[in-house]
Amino acid sequence: MAIGEVVLANRPVRRVGFGAMQLPGPGVFGPPKDRAVALAVLRRAVDLGVTHIDTAQFYGPNVANELIHAALHPYPTDLVLVSKVGAARGATGEWLPAQRPDELRAGVEANLVSLDLDHIPVVNLRRHPESDVPFDEQLDAMIAMRDEGLIAGIGLSNVGLEEYLAARQRTTVACVQNAFSVADRSDQAVFDLCRSDSVPYVPFFPLGSAFHPENPVLSAPAVKDVARRVAATPAQVALAWLLHQAPTVLLIPGTSSLAHLEDNLAAGDLVLDQAALEALSG
Known about the structure:
With 282 residues, the chain is of the alpha/beta class. Helices cover 39% and strands 16% of the residues. The protein is built from ten helices and ten strands.
């Protein structure tokens, strides 16, 4: 890749990584349709130079982490695994908040077991928008686990500007993982501050949400027009645009397809000219 690296919790990672969310079954629930392909995707990602994999115990649940362990353990020394806590799954796949400090700790401990790690390089605290747990109490729990050596870095996910500002006053923020894409810039204020602070920003749903049939990113006229002009896929254009927004942007596009994996990683080599950037930014 020609896009360099970013330091994530004191470890260098390549800027295009891999998100494990799509490896389990439909709706991020249950086993994968084809376990052999899921394992092959993970191994191929590492073979192609991926050094940053994003996962969560509640993906499946208990599926994505098991696949990562089966495919890659013992892990390459340069591989940085990032997980998240703050959610759980119901018996029929419903998404449930798990926001209390004891639930955050249980989530970290479950990740340690399933990934077979003595500490996790980064764990993102995923804030539920309607959480009734004070943010300071959640930070207390995360800081305590870092100080105990269970995690090396504290990340934040799904947070607003006030929460980011409060967190950076109390601890080093390893990264911020919020929704951001060429079609959704509602998080621009947090993005800009992370860029100013040189904090890695990891946009989730960079190619649009997998939970909605209509994809505003890949169907955007500007994205499709630029893709035709530069002989790339719309996904590659959307990812390349994100990489151009700040040198600390880290991407974690997810897929359960080997072909899509290679297409996504190739976005790191796509250079967008000024006309393309202006069209997409507009």
